[in-house]
Write a structure and sequence with these properties.
about 30% strand, 1 helix, alpha+beta
Length: about 100
């Protein structure tokens, strides 16, 4: 396993934190997703990340990763993701226009 850089906006990215994020070598590259589906039940949330298969009729989405979360973890994830996107947008505004 390799140590991966912690994503921006992650509250656990504090260098004084005792939590480490480990990503196995076979997961380092990640997967490409251009579609997402969210299903909620009383017990939790299922997020399917998918890839729209090109030139296939009817339109077909191949699920490349499924994530199951508790509602509490989902709310935390939503906040972290929202903060990361806002940080990225703000940094993009600061870049010189080409």
């Amino acid at each position: 396993m390799s140590d991966a850089p912690k994503p921006e906006g992650n509250p656990q990215s504090d260098p004084n934190s005792s939590i480490q994020l480990k990503v196995s070598d076979d997961q380092q590259a990640g997967v490409f997703s251009n579609a997402v589906s969210v299903s909620m039940t009383r017990d939790g949330v299922v997020i399917d990340f998918g890839y729209i298969l090109p030139n296939v009729k009817p339109t077909t989405i191949k699920v490349v990763s499924r994530v199951n979360m508790t509602h509490m973890t989902t709310e935390s994830f939503l906040k972290v993701l929202q903060n990361a996107v806002l940080d990225w947008r703000n940094k993009q505004k600061e870049l010189p226009q080409q």
